[in-house]
Specification:
By secondary structure, this protein is α/β, with parallel strands linked by helices. The chain is about 45% helix and about 5% strand.
Length: about 350
């Protein structure tokens, strides 16, 4: 079984966290490769990453940004740009498009990204909507655990869940190990009813999927759905049109069959709630880690618009209000499917 990825210290207040820090801290200002020989080999095989050319490739992407998007206020350091190269297997053009999508998502969805910092989503974290399991799976992939049934529409807007999810992804992508290995999602639909299933609607669903697929430099290797209700067919019908074929194939539905889940995620890294042997699910650890990274996120997100003055291609990530109307029209038909399944 894979060990937790390091016990390197991050920005944590020792008076509030008793246990050792189990997640890597932010990368150093000057890039130094932290990959093990095994991961260097994996990156070469799966991502076309050649260690001897790594910094040359980063410089090539940096040159493209400065030439083609000179007004783009983005980080240009090696560690940051490497995320986008790895996510697009060192294809410069696709990496640049991903970077533009990354920033375009922030411009197109201001209610998510304005003043984005952990303290603003503490209520989401306290409710237990999401967490990250402390041990990676045998392939070195951290497991993002989502529990949408913990959220009720009357509690707070759905967009707050997206804010918490985005902050979690930003933290997860910092270690080079995650950039190479990717992540696994475990979504527990216990308690999900009509109010949650019909709430965000296809326009918001499309935005979330677009960010995960085309607007964020992370590799989602599998999405495991457990305890899905009968109405999940309707929920998935909302999401599926926006999924690329490759991503749709990575969805695995287990119902309440824990043995099926264990064939995809071993018991050794799962909490007792899911038939595992890794202790009880403790949502507080990841919550504290994010909250202790407050200053880091203020620097990252609470800054002027990075796209001000930038001319983007006509075909970008989001389609605007016209698409909203089309999506909502389509949703009226899907809503009847939800009710028929309920």
């Amino acid at each position: 079984m894979a060990e937790p990825i390091g016990l390197r210290s991050g920005t944590v207040n020792p008076t509030t966290v008793a246990e050792p820090v189990w997640f890597p801290g932010p990368p150093p200002p000057v890039y130094t490769c932290t990959l093990s020989p095994e991961l260097v080999s994996k990156a070469r095989e799966e991502l076309q990453e050649k260690p001897e050319w790594r910094l040359r490739d980063v410089q090539a992407l940096r040159d493209m940004i400065q030439k083609e998007q000179p007004n783009l206020r983005t980080r240009l350091d090696d560690a940051f740009l490497l995320r986008f190269l790895r996510a697009r297997k060192f294809d410069y053009d696709r990496a640049l498009q991903l970077l533009l999508n990354y920033h375009a998502g922030r411009k197109a969805w201001p209610e998510v990204f304005q003043d984005l910092k952990p303290s603003m989503v503490k209520h989401v974290l306290d409710l237990g909507f999401l967490t990250v399991l402390p041990q990676p799976d045998p392939s070195g992939r951290y497991i993002l655990c989502l529990r949408p049934g913990k959220w009720k529409p009357n509690d707070y807007p759905f967009v707050d869940n997206v804010r918490a999810l985005y902050l979690t992804l930003e933290k997860l992508i910092q270690p080079e190990e995650t950039q190479v290995n990717g992540i696994v999602i475990l979504a527990d639909y216990t308690g999900v009813g009509m109010s949650q299933a019909s709430n965000p609607g296809p326009f918001l669903a499309k935005k979330v999927v677009s960010i995960l697929q085309d607007g964020f430099p992370i590799r989602i290797k599998a999405v495991n759905i457990i305890n899905e209700p009968r109405i999940f067919k309707g929920i998935f019908a909302v999401i599926k049109p926006f999924l690329k074929e490759k991503m749709a194939e990575r969805y695995v539905l287990h119902s309440s069959d824990l043995r099926s889940l264990h064939r995809n995620i071993p018991r050794s890294v799962l909490p007792e709630e899911y038939g595992g042997i890794a202790g009880q699910l403790d949502m507080r650890v990841w919550s504290r880690l994010l909250l202790d990274s407050e200053e880091e996120f203020i620097v990252e997100f609470c800054q002027p618009d990075p796209l001000e003055g930038v001319v983007l291609p006509e075909s970008m990530l989001f389609d605007g209000e016209e698409a909203r109307g089309q999506d909502e029209d389509a949703f009226r038909g899907l809503r009847s499917q939800l009710y028929s399944c309920y």
